[in-house]
Amino acid sequence: xxxxxxxxxxxxxxxxxxxxxxxxxxxxxxxxxxxxxxxxxxxxxxxxxxxxxxxxxxxxxxxxxxxxxxxxxxxxxxxxxxxxxxxxxxxxxxxxxxxxxxxxxxxxxxxxxxxxxxxxxxxxxxxxxxxxxxxxxxxxxxxxxxxxxxxxxxxxxxxxxxxxxxxxxxxxxxxxxxxxxxxxxxxxxxxxxxxxxxxxxxxxxxxxxxxxxxxxxxxxxxxxxxxxxxxxxxxxxxxxxxxxxxxxxxxxxxxxxxxxxxxxxxxxxxxxxxxxxxxxxxxxxxxxxxxxxxxxxxxxxxxxxxxxxxxxxxxxxxxxxxxxxxxxxxxxxxxxxxxxxx
Length: 342
Ligand code: 5GP
Ligand code: MN
Fold this sequence. Notes:
CATH topology of the largest domain: inorganic pyrophosphatase (n-terminal core)
CATH superfamily of the largest domain: inorganic pyrophosphatase (n-terminal core)
Bound molecules: guanosine-5'-monophosphate, manganese (II) ion
Oligomer: single chain
Domain DHHA1: 256-333
Strand content: 15-25%
InterPro entries: DDH_dom, DHH_sf, DHHA1_dom, Oligoribo/pAp-PDE_c-di-AMP_PDE
Pfam families: DHH, DHHA1
Protein name: Phosphoesterase RecJ domain-containing protein
Organism: Williamwhitmania taraxaci
């Protein structure tokens, strides 16, 4: 059963936790700050109380998040499939954080489908699937990390909140809100942040570790994207950037290097819709962002088998890059009225 508030969720979770011996925490592919921040935050908070707790992620930790306390203890399915499968096979409970469809965990999907463990969803994306034993799905929360704090607070796990847990949770909220500039729809977010700051986190340092730790290659790739690759369609208040597999290789791209690029065109006055296309293993991964009312999750769901939030979503295209872009430009024309009024 999936709940959209904590009242019924917490007692059921408490009971499940009291009899669980082996717990796994899983998060989505290409993990971002909220995926890892919420997973490691929960890991630190539960570690003191549970016998065995493991964090499983589909892909490697991107460089800008490697400093997160506990990140070197996670099981990366891409590097260690056997260990991942063992962890999933032994689990009584599997926390599924920051995603709500089993196919969002790429290489872990099969093991997550087969696990004897009960799948517990904690997430802030709309429209969760029905593949969870118990869930808390709250779109009013800025981030999954914020929800992890609230859930753990109800469970009495945050009384002596440690710096490691607080730093991870802070990172999740900070990254999912663009450093507190969007996705905050309730004052509660700032109450949670107050607890984290009182736990002694070094908030300026965290900001710097996440946002000022990029490689020279990444900056040059960003420059190339802005100078040569950004297409602005002013009339439709849209801009997009695309990178082919060859371009990505040329700049010696590493996982996480293009994180945030999709937001760049939104700094242009009047632009309300931005898309970033990147070709990886023959698939075009798309990141979509908007300002205001234009719902990019609906757009991603309708055309690209994806989803996400109203202002931040993702999807995929199996067509070649140039065809994907041409098709996108066609789709876009149907939204002229919506984009003009967004
Ligand atoms: P990003 O562009 O950073 O990869 O993702 C933006 C948001 O959309 C995140 O909240 C992410 O979880 C969600 N998202 C990204 N790709 C997909 C996808 O293929 N399917 C769904 N349902 N959500 C996605
Ligand atoms: Mn999130």
